[in-house]
Amino acid sequence: MKIASFNINGIKARLPRLLEWLEETKPDVACLQEIKTQDEGFPAAEFEKIGYGAIWHGQKSFNGVAILTRDQQPEETKRGLDGEPEDEHSRYLEANVTAPGGGTVRVASIYLPNGNPQPGPKFDFKLRWMKRLRNRASEIWREEIPAVLAGDYNVIPRDNDVFSVKAMENDALMQPESRQAYQRILHDGWTDALGVTYPAGKIWTYWDYRSGGWQRDQGFRIDHLLLSPLAADHLRSCGVDKEHRGREKASDHAPTWVELNL
């Protein structure tokens, strides 16, 4: 079963690239972030044409997450995170999907706050959001089911996950508090699929449009797929579809994926 995460950076602007990627790689599940559209503008019919069911949680102009599933309709289990009723950002969506061989897998599409500039209220919100995510992750973990928390976490976990530590040292993505909040989730029993598969790092998932980041391969890893124990036990492979970042009018992120032998 192939489960992918893809920050599409505007689903309307990137729709041709997204459909192209889906048809070429055929993931069973695609968790999308930054769809940047209200619910009524989501192009569900375009995905139905190529065999994908969808659920989505949109927001005008920014944020927004979605889950696409091949040859089935995802069963929504949660929309948004508990703990801060005034938070109206569309950043979390969760569903049950059926594995090709049968059985249920829980997936979540996550778009974690960026947190810049830091220090400040945006960084404080990021840390509170990560605490709320940890609480939800703990609830899922206790269900003892195969689960994948996929998305743009806006956290660079390790120094070898960035092209230049010095260039990013003051960014919210690399602050000790951000990293510690991410590590707490891992310490609760979740496995960072790319992190354990590529311990030496240097596997980028994002290249900034500015300053020739793609052309110079100056990227970093902020798109993660965290696996529950029952999912991690069946991890077969994982990787990044880097080539898709180099296509015309591409997102600034590349699709990231895991294959589970369920």
In a nutshell, what does this entry contain?
The protein is α+β, with helices and mostly antiparallel strands and 262 residues long. Helix content is 24%, strand content 27%. The protein is built from seven helices and 14 strands.
What can you tell me about this protein's structure?
With 262 residues, the protein is an alpha+beta fold. It has one domain: Endonuclease/exonuclease/phosphatase (Deoxyribonuclease I, Chain A, 4-Layer Sandwich), CATH 3.60.10. It has seven helices and 14 strands. Strand 6 (92-98) and strand 7 form a beta hairpin. Helix 3 runs parallel beside helix 5. It is globular. The mean pLDDT is 97.
Average pLDDT = 97
Q: How many domains? A: 1
CATH architecture descriptor: 4-Layer Sandwich
Outline the low-pLDDT stretches.
Answer: none
Portion in strands: 25-35%
Q: Outline, from the CA principal axes?
A: globular
> What share of the residues lie within helices?
10-25%
Radius of gyration: 17 Å
Sheet with most strands: strand arrangement: 3-4-2-1-14-13
By CATH's scheme, which homologous superfamily applies? Endonuclease/exonuclease/phosphatase
Note the total helix count. 7
Q: Tell how many strands the DSSP assignment holds.
A: 14
Helix vs. strand class? alpha+beta
Cα distance, first to last residue?
A: 7 Å
Query: Which fold does the CATH topology refer to?
Result: Deoxyribonuclease I, Chain A
Tell me, what is the CATH class?
Alpha Beta
Biggest β-sheet strands, sense, barrel: 6 strands, mixed
Order of helices and strands: EHEHEEEEEHEHHEHEEEHEE
Cofactor: Mg(2+)
Protein name: Exodeoxyribonuclease III
Family: Belongs to the DNA repair enzymes AP/ExoA family.
Keywords: Hydrolase, Magnesium, Metal-binding
